[in-house]
Structures are given as structure tokens and as C-alpha cells.
Amino acid sequence: MEKIDRKPAVAGQFYPADPKILQIKLTDLFAKATPMQHQKVRAIISPHAGYVFSGKVAASVFNQIDSEKTYKRVFILATSHHEYFEGASVYCDGDFLMPYGKDLVDTTFGKKLVDSFPKIFTNNRNPHLKEHSIEVQLPFLHHVLNTDYCIIPIIIGTSNPAVCKEIAKALKFWFNADNLFIISSDFSHYAAYTDARKIDEFTKTAILSNHPETLINTLKENSRKQVPNLVTSLCGWTSVLTLLYMTTGNDSMEYHAIGYQNSGDTPIYGEKDRVVGYWGISVSEIQQKKIPNLFNNAKKING
After folding, report:
1. Is residue 269 part of a domain?
2. What pLDDT is attached to residue 270?
3. pLDDT tens-digit profile of 90-119?
4. DSSP codes joined into one string, 224-254
5. What is the enclosing helix (H) or strand (E) of 256?
6. What is the DSSP string of 133-177?
7. Cβ atoms within 10 Å of 72's Cβ, excluding its own
8. Which domain holds residue 286?
9. For a 10 Å CB count at each end of the chain, is N or C smaller?
10. CA angle, 47 as apex, 221 and 51 as ends, to 5°?
């Protein structure tokens, strides 16, 4: 089969198309970002808006990744903004072309994933062609990782939580220390500044609970509040829910809120009456605390 690389859809819109300018922009964003706070990160939830609005939050959560670690694969899950379909689409036809070169796709693995779970995954590339939510993550990944990597781009088209649960079951085997998961999602859309901060706090807390039903119920409750102009409180909710289905019940995993802002915080362009919210969240292995050696301490005290 002929290789078909996926061309950039939003270069020059969401992020600079000129590689030199893009590098300057990323360097600036990471310089202002929150430094690493937790070790052994397995997954991150990162925004996918224009860098002028959400770039600092994205850089902060990408900063949680060990830049020297070699990952076997980087899974990127995003919710479709353009096409709606049952299951999820895996890009299997080629690599992702970017201003700085190529992000390599493990097409062999992608095809095996589709062949192994044909009721869940498709290799239809059409949902990927105009979708921005995976593409905007790639420059951050390219900037932060100093090692070679390949990606598995997955776009979720369903709005059925039961299907998200099946996607999670299929992917859970690879949710381990060898791989990294990037979940692409913005938070609230179009509420006023103060309302957005409140709604985003509720949603963030639900995600940190590591309980899928808590997130589903919180999203429903957010909707019932009838906040003026609120269209969604988590635009990539199916992708985030899929992550929660992979981690819930796993006592070795812990969610961390890394940073928040919304588009109203952006100088010059920030409007307070209609904003989009952005949280950066990481998922890491719980670090074992060192237990003090009481016997040695007693010897020191007593001579």
C-alpha cells in the first residue's frame, strides 16, 4: 500500500508554520512553564488551542515528562471535532509532516491494533486530515523529548461512554512504563471568565478522583447548572474518560493538577465575557516514601 503522510492542517494558525519561529515560541513557553513536579509520568492531559492562549499550560504539563526517557510508543488520544463515528480511528497510512520535519508513526503497530479490535478501531484516515487536536501536541513533544520516539495517533469519534470503556480495555495492555499517553482536551467553552473558572475547577476535581462515573456525573451536573453560554465543560471528554477507564482502580497511579488558565488570561487577545478553559494534568506512578530506620535512629540517640 502506498504511504500517505498526513500534512499539517493548522500550521500558521494554531502555531507558527516557520520552524525557526516555532522553535523560538516553544523555547519561550517552556521558559515560563511550571517545572517538573512529579517523576515517572505515564500520561498527561494537555490543551489543544492556539499557543497564544493555551501554550503555557501545555508546556507546563509537557515539562512533567522525563526528557531523557526512551518510550517505545507515544499514544495520542483526541476527540474528533469534525466527524462523528462509533469507535476510534488510528492513523496507519504514514507519518505526520510537521514544520520541523516528520513525527514518525508506528504504522505496523496501528494496523495490528485495528486488525485485533475491528469492532473498536478503524484505519480510516479522513477524521485525521483536518483535526487539530493531535497536531498541536506534536511540537511540544518534539521539543521536550531528547530521545527517538514514534506516535500512535488515535481520534475518538464516539460519544458513548460504553464504547470509551471498550477502547480503554483494548489499550490498557500498553498503559505501562514503556509507553506514554497524551490526552488532548480543552475544558469549558464560552462561559464568562468567573463562571469558567468555577466549572473548570469542578471538572478538574472530578478527573483527579480517578473515577469515570464521577467525571460523567460532574459533566452532567455542570450542564444542569445552565451557566450562560456554556457549550461544554470538557470538549475532549471521551478521550479523558477513556484514560480514566484505563487508570481507575489502579492504586499505583495518581493524578496531579499542574496548571490552569483560560483564554481570558491572555494579554491583548483575552476577552473575559467568552472564554475557553485549559487545565494541564499529569498521571504518575505513586512514589514510595522512604520509611525511616528507627533502630539506627535509636542507636544515634542513645549512643
Report:
1. yes
2. 79
3. 999 999 999 999 999 999 999 999 999 999
4. HTT-TT--BS-TTHHHHHHHHHHHTT-TTEE
5. strand 253-262
6. TTGGGHHHHHHH--S---EEEEEE----HHHHHHHHHHHGGG-ST
7. 14
8. 19-302
9. C
10. 140
The whole-angstrom separation of Cα 94 and Cα 106 is 8
Phi (first) and psi of residue 105, to 5 degrees:
-105, 135
- The CATH number that applies at residue 94 is 3.40.830.10
230 lies in a domain?
yes
For 250, residues 6+ apart whose C-beta sits below 8 A from its C-beta are 210
User: Using 50, 70 and 90 to split pLDDT, how confident is the model at 249?
Assistant: very high
Alpha helices in the chain (DSSP H): 19-32, 51-62, 107-116, 126-129, 138-144, 161-171, 193-208, 212-224, 237-247, 294-302
pLDDT of residue 300: 47
User: Domain count of the chain?
Assistant: 1
Cα angle for residues 292, 294, 298 (degrees, 5° grid): 135
Question: Does residue 86 form part of some domain?
Answer: yes
Is residue 232 over pLDDT 60? yes
Answer whether residue 218 is part of any domain. yes
Collapsing DSSP to helix, strand or coil, 267 comes out as coil
Please name which of 239, 98, 228, 225 lies closest in space to residue 158, comparing C-alpha atoms.
Answer: 239
pLDDT at 13: 97
Beta carbons within 8 Å of 27's beta carbon, 6+ residues apart: 143
